[in-house]
Structures are given as C-alpha cells and as structure tokens.
Task: inverse folding
C-alpha cells in the first residue's frame, strides 16, 4: 500500500480544520503547523510528523475514527493519533499513560505542549485562563516524565 505523502497529510489536516480558530482567535491550522514543525525539529520520523498534522483531528471532530482507520497512513501514525485523542471524561493520568505506552507518541505530545504552553500564546489569554492552562500543561509534562517547567 502506498501511504499519503506529508504534503497530502498537511492538505487533509488543513482542509479538515479549515475555519476553526484556537483560543487566541488564530486559524487552528497554525497550531497544527507548529506541532508538525516541532516534531521535525525534535528529529521525528515522517510517521510522527504526519501524526503532528493530524493529532487533534479526531478529538476535534474534524475527521472520524473511521476515516483514520481507512486512511493510507502507516500503523505508527494511526496509533499515535489514536493515543493523542482524548476520550470524553478521561482522567489525565490515563491519557498520559496511553501516550507513554505508544511508540513515537511522546515526541508529538512534546511538540504539542511546547506550542500550547508558549508564553506568547498564553499571554494573549485572560489571566485566569492562562494560569489554568499553564497548570494543566505543567501537570501533563510531569505525568509524561518531562521537566514540568519546560517543553
């Protein structure tokens, strides 16, 4: 089976998230690009970079689990996207344990956390939201065995 190229994965992700914005009001695709580039900068494989583009697609209902199951993607990419997809009501401890148990997922989550916790992004939010999110990201890094104060 021939897999989708990274350019094709990027196009699918950009199309799937078209019109969505992040908490700062920026196009959501800026976050996806930052995560994919962050994965590449951390030495991630093509499967991991593809997962960076798609890491929020299922959780945000931009694409379906059925789409992911049938997509021309490597098993590693599919497993990472699944691992990074939070389940409704799922405790953070279970979510992070799944990431740690999935080969290749940690580097994608590191890139995601690095962009989410970027002080410039947090500074544009109201102080209560910024502090709540910063605490959540610190706890997530801690549970993943990462330095809680850096991404």
Result:
């Amino acid at each position: 089976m021939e897999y989708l190229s990274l350019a094709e994965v990027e196009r699918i992700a950009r199309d799937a998230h078209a019109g969505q914005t992040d908490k700062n009001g920026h196009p959501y695709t800026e976050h996806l690009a930052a995560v994919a580039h962050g994965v590449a900068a951390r030495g991630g494989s093509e499967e991991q970079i593809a997962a960076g583009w798609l890491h929020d697609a299922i959780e945000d209902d931009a694409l379906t689990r059925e789409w992911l199951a049938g997509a021309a993607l490597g098993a590693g990419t599919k497993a990472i996207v699944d691992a990074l997809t939070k389940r409704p009501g799922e405790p953070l401890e279970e979510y992070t344990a799944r990431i740690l148990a999935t080969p290749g997922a940690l580097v994608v989550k590191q890139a995601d956390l690095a962009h989410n916790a970027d002080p410039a992004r947090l500074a544009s939010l109201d102080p209560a939201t910024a502090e709540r999110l910063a605490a959540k990201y610190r706890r997530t890094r801690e549970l993943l065995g990462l330095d809680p104060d850096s991404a």
